[in-house]
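User: My advisor, Dr. K., asked me to get a structural model of this assembly before our group meeting. I'm new to this, so sorry if the format is off. These are the inputs:
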Amino acid sequence: SLSNNTIERICRIYGYLEYLEKNNIEYASSKEFAGIVGTTDYSVRKDISSLGLTGFSRRGYAVKLLKDQLGEKLKLSRTIKTCIVGLGKLGTAILDYESFRDDGFNMVAGFDSSINKIERIHTPIEVFPVGQLEDIVKQRSIELGIIAVPPVAAQDIADKLIKGGVKGILNFSPVRIAVPEEIVLHNMDFTAALRFVAARF
Amino acid sequence: SLSNNTIERICRIYGYLEYLEKNNIEYASSKEFAGIVGTTDYSVRKDISSLGLTGFSRRGYAVKLLKDQLGEKLKLSRTIKTCIVGLGKLGTAILDYESFRDDGFNMVAGFDSSINKIERIHTPIEVFPVGQLEDIVKQRSIELGIIAVPPVAAQDIADKLIKGGVKGILNFSPVRIAVPEEIVLHNMDFTAALRFVAARF
Ligand SMILES: NC(=O)c1ccc[n+]([C@@H]2O[C@H](COP(=O)([O-])OP(=O)(O)OC[C@H]3O[C@@H](n4cnc5c(N)ncnc54)[C@H](O)[C@@H]3O)[C@@H](O)[C@H]2O)c1
Ligand SMILES: NC(=O)c1ccc[n+]([C@@H]2O[C@H](COP(=O)([O-])OP(=O)(O)OC[C@H]3O[C@@H](n4cnc5c(N)ncnc54)[C@H](O)[C@@H]3O)[C@@H](O)[C@H]2O)c1
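Assistant: The format is fine. Below is the predicted structure of the whole assembly, which you can bring to the meeting.
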């Protein structure tokens, strides 16, 4: 099946196709996609054909068609039930971010260890004490957990999310988390991103 | 010179070496690095030797030595003056994030278009109305700008940061920004990261 690097590129191309569709652009070239994901023309065409897709004409790829095909192949067009653990500075920013819903990620619950925070927070999303994490994840069939707790609590929260039944985790805390083989884990590393910019000055 | 993909991998290996050093681990293998950045053993050794570094013994790479060498080659060990534009939900979370300073990124100023927000915000970092962005970036020789404004304002803010003299931009807004060739731009795309997790369920 597909390598992680191919899947990551396809997800970014999918986002770019969404942008083109919103701006009523009908065709796009593999050269444009290559610019977005930082690879070559050839490698983009290989990625797309590795999904068994063609649809390439002299004018380039038909934007709407390719987007729908990629969405189907990678199951990107369905809605994913998501929760966030840790309602501090970063967690509340993510909790209130309305674009996630448009992108297919339905934030169904938030959790925090501080009862005081749970009571004071103003959000339309239901929030719970972290003690109820496993039960709520199970009851609501939450598939994806976002971790925004301090580093010292991250592994424990990952274990609880997995026990509750999530399939994947997006981790914002700067520690390595150990998860079983079948759980999909991705780390959002702000510092690595800043370094990636500064190293190229 | 190095490809962007190689630089990105090295930045993540550098972060991992920092973690190992903090935990008093003296040696690490290229296999471990390959696991962290999602490539092969061979490709990691190629990345490291492409910087002209050796230091590989039977026990693996010496952690402290390799970290210092990578830090020097990619100039990761110097302090970079940084600012953030947009002090809303995400911007204030980033403004207050103390770890950036330990990682070498010194947040020297914050900016927002809302005077009300500038007056009410509690932070040890100096904040200014966005009208002063170009002057402050110039006066304080700010090298890296972080964009956390609504999508509609992102391009304008990028232009102002560049006029002020930044060398690079980390963009959190979900729009494509156009920058001149010599400016280093990196987009932090939360939605692409969520999709990268969900596509692998
Ligand atoms: N603020 C940023 O810009 C930023 C950037 C990158 C990474 N991070 C990382 O994201 C995480 C959150 O950062 P923050 O700035 O929002 O911190 P914060 O201290 O503002 O928020 C942490 C929240 O987690 C809660 N919490 C603590 N232990 C918990 C537990 N066991 N279970 C559930 N909730 C718990 C706290 O009550 C608090 O509300 C940290 O790991 C941080 O390193 C933050
Ligand atoms: N909140 C999240 O978790 C999240 C996640 C991913 C991406 N983003 C993106 O990050 C950006 C900020 O998101 P947010 O949730 O913090 O939004 P927000 O509305 O809470 O904050 C935006 C801030 O920018 C300021 N602003 C508006 N126009 C400006 C201008 N021209 N110059 C300077 N400041 C200006 C506003 O006064 C406000 O304080 C958006 O582009 C959003 O799409 C947010």
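One thing worth pointing out at the meeting: The two ends of chain B are 37 Å apart (CA to CA).

User: Perfect, thanks a lot.
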